[in-house]
Specification:
52% of the residues lie in helices and 12% in strands. The structure holds adenosine-5'-diphosphate (ADP) and magnesium ion.
Length: 693
């Protein structure tokens, strides 16, 4: 009882709505939420009043239109409920305040979409994601658009893609005789990885504070080589953090479900129960914020960067995706009847075809400077797009495509006689492969490329869209073929024939796979600069435009923002390195060198010799020169980049020149770090960072 009592207590949830709204208003709002239909203005006025009353009763003094600009973080301006009218204090929160806000939005990334003379942005209430109270403020989830209606956030395209997918899925379902479905919702469960380190250590590392990752640091004395962290006993301090995190997440209606230690020391994971992808996106954003805040309150720091430490695993975010009808059917789950199982296969094919045709676009949604440090490493899926289906499903699909018969013996054996055990069979099958970037895991797909700090919105938008496009294509086949059976056989066999290449059930980490993938001509994109191109490829723009999810202008803007974010991230990292070098690292090495020289002088005064100290001084001296050489090279390159005007040129220069010098510079420092005593080099080492909590 007590456990569930606080769940969702800070949320304007169903129970609260029922209590605070007249029945008719409640039903009308509920309908809008469930079917994403527009809300009548008079309803909004009643909802606004109820929401305000509830919020104030629960301690809120302000409200904010909460939105997700393309910064990767959320934003909002806080307005007080209180107002002055003719010198009298009154509470003011009309339906206008609820529905629409006009933040001065000129300072958010817009990729050139807004001229300054029309710099106003609009936030528009998204009633499908519930409002909540945080820090005495009523948070109203909103979409963020420009004066001309162009999307300036991650939510707008997501909402658009959900509608598109629902429409196409309903059309396909009609061919299966399912006509009572009014809405199909993509569902997402976002598993979140993170590091937890000591706060004081964090505060003493400028690189972690500014960039989220260590830019210097020799190998830790112990990493993950013993395989002894994954799912190991959770330390008391971490357990305490996780408990507080759970309680806080639950109070916001986020059903945090699973927690465990991850592969690297001080690395952990939280998995919530899945929900509608839009709510899941908002909740994941909120989760990341809460993770950081609770860590700070507990003298810890939560790192959400994709690769905070070079020599141990980085952190990802697994996007578990499926489709659910308003009648409660998971369309990626096997059913009880033949027809249900054929339906399952058709929806499965829609995903396979979509990912195969638009693998570059999907890969792009995971691209960032941070994730470039992680993808392709040993822990993360490589930067090659492929799909894991498991042997069972792969066999069923290929048999159908060979026999041209949907209810073949084999299929019957597989799907009918084993109907009860099949879901387990599929799950077992899928559990064997953890290396695939896009894996079928029994009743959902899991996209594993996403970085830990990323919003799930863009990748979910793209998955929704590419599946919608396949479903639209399948609808045509259903319409053109002479029978239902023929259509299904055509759908499955053409998917197998044309998209077999992307299916790979083996080990994605193996060297052979890279070779094989090249032969198969699969999408291999290693960095963000290359990935960004996907935004401006004609084929992808057509897809976005066809479904009115993004215009070509909006695609171009996002392309520029992605390149800009990439480039600026690297520049900030480079400047952080220089600051650390100048203010901490080089002075420390020099001071230690001086101390050794003084010691040596003392020894020589006694007419003694010490070859080891001489050797140490030699090495320190060599290192200082080496570091300075690399430092100067970096400074020069930071001047050089100013000569480029185009975002693409800047980004390429960052990737090809600046990053490489940074790597060299790091090595020259790491090589000498362990020689310098803590007395001089006060910055915590990687060992300190990974093993202090
Ligand atoms: P694992 O991936 O470790 O095997 P689970 O299968 O239990 O773990 O689930 C992982 C994540 O997938 C959880 O966040 C869960 O809520 C989510 N998930 C489960 N079913 C669905 C679904 N139908 N749609 C979207 N996400 C789902
Ligand atoms: Mg998983």
């Amino acid at each position: 009882m007590k456990l569930s009592k606080n769940f969702s207590k800070k949320v304007f949830n169903d129970k609260v709505m029922k209590k605070y709204l007249p029945k008719e208003t409640y039903l009308s709002l509920k309908k809008s939420i469930e079917f994403s239909s527009p809300l009548e203005p008079e309803i909004a006025s009643i909802v606004a009043s109820a929401m305000k009353n509830w919020a104030i009763e629960n301690g809120a003094t302000h409200y904010t239109h909460w939105f997700q600009p393309m910064t990767g973080r959320s934003a909002g301006k806080h307005d007080g409920f209180i107002d002055l009218t003719n010198g009298e204090v009154e509470i003011n929160f009309s339906e206008k305040c609820l529905i629409k806000g006009e933040p001065d939005a000129s300072s958010f990334p817009n990729g050139g979409l807004r001229n300054t003379f029309e710099a106003r942005g609009y936030t528009i209430w998204d009633c499908t994601s519930p409002a909540f109270i945080k820090d005495n403020t009523l948070y109203i989830p909103t979409a963020f658009c420009s004066y001309n209606g162009e999307a300036l956030d991650t939510k707008t395209p997501l909402l658009r893609s959900m509608e598109v997918l629902s429409t196409q899925a309903i059309k396909v379902l009609k061919f299966f005789g399912v006509s009572n479905v009014i809405n199909v919702t993509p569902t997402v469960g976002a598993e979140q990885e993170y590091f937890l380190i000591d706060r004081k250590n964090y505060e003493n590392r400028l690189d972690l504070k500014i960039c989220g990752r260590t830019l210097f640091g020799a190998n830790p004395v112990k990493g993950q080589e013993m395989d002894d962290y994954y799912c190991s006993r959770i330390k008391i301090k971490v357990a305490d953090y996780m408990k507080k995190l759970d309680e806080e997440l639950w109070s916001f209606g986020i059903c945090s479900k699973t927690k465990h230690n991850e592969v690297a020391p001080s690395q952990h994971e939280m998995a919530p129960v899945f929900e509608s992808c839009n709510v899941a996106a908002d909740h994941n954003q909120l989760t990341m914020e809460i993770m950081r805040v609770i860590a700070k309150k507990n003298n810890l720091a939560c790192l959400l960067h994709e690769k905070p430490f070079l020599m141990v695993n980085g952190s990802g975010k697994h996007n578990n995706w499926s489709l659910c009808t308003n009648t409660g059917i998971n369309l990626l789950d096997v059913g009880k009847t033949k027809k249900e199982n054929v339906r399952f296969l058709v929806f499965l094919c829609a995903v396979i075809r979509g990912v195969s045709l638009y693998s570059g676009l999907l890969r792009m949604t995971a691209a960032s400077a941070g994730n470039d440090c992680r993808l392709g490493g040993n822990e993360a899926p490589p930067a090659i797009m492929s799909i894991f289906l498991g042997e069972t499903i792969t066999k069923v699909l290929s048999n159908i495509s060979i026999e041209k018969e949907i209810f073949s013996e084999d299929f019957k054996n597989m799907l009918i006689t084993k109907a009860k055990t099949l879901p387990n069979l599929l799950k077992d099958d899928s559990d064997r492969n953890r290396t695939s970037p896009f894996a079928f895991t029994g009743n959902k797909f899991e996209f594993r490329m996403l970085g830990s700090s990323a919003s799930i919105s863009m990748c979910t938008t793209v998955i929704n869209l590419i599946v919608a496009e396949s479903l639209e294509y399948f609808v045509k086949i259903f319409e053109e073929e002479s029978s239902f059976e023929n259509a299904v056989v055509k759908i499955i066999s053409s998917t197998v024939k044309e998209h077999n290449n992307i299916i790979f059930n083996g080990n994605n980490y193996s060297k052979e796979w890279e070779e094989e993938a090249k032969k198969r001509n699969l999408c291999i994109i290693k960095d963000t600069v290359t990935a960004a191109e996907e935004y401006v490829k004609e084929k992808n723009i057509s897809l976005f435009e066809h479904f009115n999810v993004l215009t070509s202008g909006e695609c171009l803007a996002r392309y520029k923002i992605l390149l800009n974010n990439y480039c600026e991230t690297i520049l900030i990292e480079a400047h952080t390195m220089l600051e650390m070098l100048g203010k901490e690292i080089l002075p420390a090495i020099l001071e230690y060198t001086k101390e050794l020289c003084d010691t040596l002088n003392g020894i020589e005064k006694l007419k003694l010799k010490n070859k080891t100290i001489v050797k140490d001084v030699e090495f320190l001296n060599f290192s200082i020169e080496n570091i300075n050489r690399n430092k100067n090279e970096l400074i020069k390159s930071l001047e050089e980049i100013k000569n480029f005007n185009k975002k693409l040129d800047k980004a390429k220069f960052s990737r090809d020149v600046i990053l490489k010098i940074m790597k060299k510079l790091r090595k020259s420092v790491d090589d000498v770090e362990l020689m310098v005593p803590k007395k001089f080099l006060k910055m915590p080492s990687i060992t300190d960072l990974l093993h202090k909590v």
